[in-house]
Input
Amino acid sequence: MDRIAIVVGIVAQMAAWWQISTHGKKVWEILPYVLGAMGIAALLLMPAAQRTTPVGKALLVGAASGIVLFLATRIFVAIAAHWGPFARHVEEAYQEAADEPVRTALILSLLVSPPKLAYKQALA
Output
């Protein structure tokens, strides 16, 4: 079950970033929902014996920290967007991502993700 959840999470993130890079969606429109759903799924799928914090408390702390980080990022971007080099680099990064063929990005993601997951499991 854990591996299925991990694969679904990877595919969900890839699909979200694909929507952002190829369909002009904004990060703020998609990614918070994908990452939030992944966090909730992780809490619900974790065996009760492994939990050190109650699910309700973890959801509350996760939501509060997510809102704070979201607002802090929005404030930073609102200020930094007026600075030419920042705006130019962001535009270049998105353009570079949009130019990458979806097939190549998918293959690279699948090559990077399993070793990353194996490393995380080895640390657990």
Q: What stands out?
A: Residues 2-123 form one domain. The first helix runs from residue 2 to 23.
